[in-house]
Amino acid sequence: MSGGGGGGGGGGGGGSAPSRFADYFVICGLDTETGLEPDELSGENFEQTPLRRTFKSKVLARYPENVEWNPFDQDAVGMLCMPKGLAFKTQADPREPQFHAFIITREDGSRTFGFALTFYEEVTSKQICSAMQTLYHMHNAEYDVLHAPPADGRDQSSMEDGEDTPVTKLQRFNSYDISRDTLYVSKCVCLITPMSFMKACRSVLEQLHQAVTSPQPPPLPLESYIYNVLYEVPLPPPGRSLKFSGVYGPIICQRPSTNELPLFDFPVKEVFELLGVENVFQLFTCALLEFQILLYSQHYQRLMTVAETITALMFPFQWQHVYVPILPASLLHFLDAPVPYLMGLHSNGLDDRSKLELPQEANLCFVDIDNHFIELPEDLPQFPNKLEFVQEVSEILMAFGIPPEGNLHCSESASKLKRLRASELFSDKRNGNIAGSPLHSYELLKENETIARLQALVKRTGVSLEKLEVREDPSCNKDLKVQCDEEELRIYQLNIQIREVFANRFTQMFADYEVFVIQPSQDKESWFTNREQMQNFDKASFLSDQPEPYLPFLSRFLETQMFASFIDNKIMCHDDDDKDPVLRVFDSRVDKIRLLNVRTPTLRTSMYQKCTTVDEAEKAIELRLAKIDHTAIHPHLLDMKIGQGKYEPGFFPKLQSDVLSTGPASNKWTKRNAPAQWRRKDRQKQHTEHLRLDNDQRETKRMLVEKMGREAVELGHGEVNITGVEENTLIASLCDLLERIWSHGLQVKQGKSALWSHLLHYQDNRQRKLTSGSLSTSGILLDSERRKSDASSLMPPLRISLIQDMRHIQNIGEIKTDVGKARAWVRLSMEKKLLSRHLKQLLSDHELTKKLYKRYAFLRCDDEKEQFLYHLLSFNAVDYFCFTNVFTTILIPYHILIVPSKKLGGSMFTANPWICISGELGETQILQIPRNVLEMTFECQNLGKLTTVQIGHDNSGLYAKWLVEFVMVRNEITGHTYKFPCGRWLGKGMDDGSLERILVGELLTSQPEVDERPCRTPPLQQSPSVIRRLVTISPNNKPKLNTGQIQESIGEAVNGIVKHFHKPEKERGSLTLLLCGECGLVSALEQAFQHGFKSPRLFKNVFIWDFLEKAQTYYETLEQNEVVPEENWHTRARNFCRFVTAINNTPRNIGKDGKFQMLVCLGARDHLLHHWIALLADCPITAHMYEDVALIKDHTLVNSLIRVLQTLQEFNITLETSLVKGIDI
């Protein structure tokens, strides 16, 4: 035996470990002694012609009888070798051998692999042939009874189930005449192995079959080859290759090492050819989210290849549910299981999808492999970065000549042509045109200059900005002579390239998963016992770091069983030695990414990071195939009796069980504990790779600060929002950076988050000083300064307190880890624009910093620290909602202030007021306000950014009139303050008679602090404090606008709405403000209807709503008298009346202007405004109530107004609940 020792071994039925290549050789087929037994479980047997029916197959022989480590499961093997039982054919039918693999899963979850080759042998038993003839006579007689006998007799039996297949075709395939036809029956030879070396097993079986069918006998009896593969061929050790002999040629298999992706031997190429990239991605997503998946094909091997490929591409996650890639006919009831499953169903090639009766189809992913077709479950989220991911996979496929859309019906010549073109593309790709060009980290950083500056500041010297490797041209390793054929090598290469790209996606997506794992406080055993009640992952904090587009997929993926098991594995295997092999490989990849990020910290973005590990992985395989590590003993003559080993061509012989039932007495393979040596080497390598951040280089830091100054570009040009970089990823990058800085030069590492640990120390110090009373007055002042706000006199601003902000975070139950808490605190500080200030305060405790950090630590280098804090200030130029938008379920205290008019007797007010506050995430119940109390605090679930306030009263008491100037509401955690202008009366008989109003609010901006540098961006427009309609002015003597100004204001209002919908969803402001705010659509249309409105009598106000009600009455009487012009007009009038009636019938006490606002909002939502304007312009009531010069009477102006309003038709306007409460239309 060359190439040193193999794995451990074991003799015949004994042996303690599965170190042999194969455990069993099995033969299944027709048992001539029991004869033909129909297989009832396989479905509608008797409607079929006898040749089409299924009969029971038996395990005819197995060698050896049993092995300890893998007890033989006769039922499972029999069922999976021939899932549809025996098949009979005649000489007229095609009889090519068919290969398929299968899996047997034991109760403990461990797997054994089977590889079966099914071929046809002539039936020599006269009884069986006669039985088949008899069955035909019976079938024909039955058929003749059911169908009128046609002119041509015998073969009409073949017309099945009224299928319109030509008679002649059916008669050729499905008739049997004992005197004329030769009968064949299926037989199967099978290898059962501990590992899935599919290609090698296929080769063993095909060579054995070739030996039986070839005219010349093989060099040795078949027993010699079978004995060899069972007892003399070892499993290759990890990272090694093995060569052994088949009947006619060498067979090679290679096994990945412990730091490569696990063994996978099915051709990925076939899956992409059969389904196409898009379908593969959809199926992959369904599998990750644990939907029920049913594969459907008439080829068992296709079912197996698709199932195994999809589950292999999930690395490092593993399918945890029912997994039956080939579902035997007798187990069809499995499909009713109410659990996730991945199963393969054999189709007979005739029935179409509609014949399948499948339960729970809404949740099912159905894949018709042979027809390139997939049916998806409802509501399937998109895999993160799907477009770039598909692009990367497509490039690889095209390099191998596989069209991304699949290659189902491509001819031989076409694929040759593609291969030729592909070879050019392939070398081009390696020259760096597609994936290999060095990527500068500053290209990634362009999108946010502040982070770029901060990172430049903390970078270490000597690390180039370029990515570490550039893919090399494959021509340089052409001198490797691999020992397998070209096609096989291409399959290996394509497999590893695709798998590396998929694995890289998860490595990138979960690069920092470890810090969110919640380690159990108790010992492993008790943790395991209470596993169901325990949370193992801080999902809220992990998701808060993710780019917005990832969330629909990730939030569901984190709830799957496969993710929970992956994290459980992580908790159970703390040290490297007992780590699950898959987890070990994944963790080492994650460590590499994090090392790379320490060297070249890049901005965390949802920017797509291509795979860079392909070449290395490919080279490892090519090296193993070029230099074979082990060669097994050649097959040799066995000690067989004379006359044994003879065989008849075309028939698989009855093997000699005495020579095959036990292996050699001595074990020829020496056991080596190779993995231990390899592990030691890996560890040393990791240590040398580990980057030492402990070099004290003050000079370098200075240089870096200067360099950063040169590279810095001011943030804050253009719009005041974050474009280019998605908010979540920006904050996550900043948090990564802060953690890295706070970890540098630590005396002792405590907990997973260095920043949170420092904050906790600071909190303890303050507590101690407070209790001992030694806190200096300057400290108190520092901690209790207030943030200035333009509402300063009315609502005193929140106290600025680092400790208070920490307490807010400590009170959030959803955050389970220190890393999560640190990130939440950073988010809150960013939203409050206090991050720089808080960190400055934290670092002002010099004694604490000295205690925690070594002399050379970044946080103890004053110049760099100052510049660092200064750069952080530039984040204050942007309004972030990174805390509010992420922690959507927490309880938040809100403070309300109502400001009534000072002039007009607010103190005499006798009614009971109430208020209801709405935001982007929800609204409060109606809150009763105690009488004469104008300020109160209440707590409710996070409302998000606030949008409207509904305020009203119950009209009780003698003086139930209330004039409210405005309302203010403040979020007591983030300090955001909103102002809701009103300036109208609430009371019957006052103004428009309203008892409740809907106020639209805007966020107030805080004034910049004194020590902050001025920011170049203008602050957000402050909320209009002008009262919309002055109290003393009745609606009619309001300052009049001319028609030009009115048209302009309507144009601007509509334009604002159009712009709103053209922005990315995350950047849109409040639609309610655009509809009902100061310059909104309602206000603009109000101006249009006010124009030329006839002056009413003295002391009586007339409102637009009065006009609309009269118009409604007019149209209703018109309809009753049935004087209806055209149909179109009729529909518009009826619609208009329906809306006005519904608004008038609302139980709410909104006044006439409130009703007008509601009508405009509903009209905009249902795209009816332009119809109504046209309707009202032609209404006789308009003639009575408007002057001749009125805008509504000028046809040219009305037409232009209609055209402007028509532009709103293409937008799907969703109204906030508060605007349409009480209206069901």
Secondary structure blueprint with pairings:
Elements (H helix, E strand, L loop, with lengths): L23 E6 L28 E6 L10 H8 L6 E3 L7 E8 L5 E12 L3 H21 L20 H8 L8 E11 L4 H16 L8 H11 L8 E5 L4 E5 L13 H8 L1 H12 L3 E6 L2 H14 L8 E3 L16 E6 L17 E5 L4 E3 L10 H14 L12 H22 L7 H5 L3 H10 L27 H24 L14 H6 L9 H6 L6 H7 L3 H12 L8 H19 L14 H13 L3 E2 L25 H4 L13 H16 L8 H14 L15 H17 L10 H19 L4 H8 L17 H9 L7 H14 L3 H9 L2 H7 L9 H11 L18 E10 L12 E7 L2 E2 L3 E2 L6 E7 L4 E8 L8 E10 L5 E10 L9 E5 L1 E2 L39 H20 L8 H6 L4 H10 L13 H17 L6 H18 L7 H14 L3 H9 L2 H6 L9 H12 L10 H4 L5
Parallel strand pairs: 7-14, 9-11, 9-12, 10-11
Antiparallel strand pairs: 1-2, 1-6, 3-6, 4-5, 5-6, 7-8, 12-13, 15-19, 15-21, 16-17, 16-18, 16-20, 20-23, 21-22, 22-24
Helix pairs in contact: 6-7, 9-13, 12-22, 12-23, 12-30, 13-19, 26-27, 28-30, 31-33, 31-39, 33-36, 34-35, 35-36, 37-39
Q: What value does the average pLDDT take? A: 76
Shape summary: globular
Total helical elements: 40
Fraction of residues in β-strands: 5-15%
The first-to-last residue Cα distance is 85 Å
As a whole number of angstroms, the C-alpha radius of gyration is 39 Å
Count the E strands: 24
Structural class by sheet pairing and helices: alpha+beta
- Poorly predicted ranges: 1-16, 150-173, 410-447, 460-478, 667-725, 777-784, 788-792, 1008-1037
Relative helix content? 25-40%
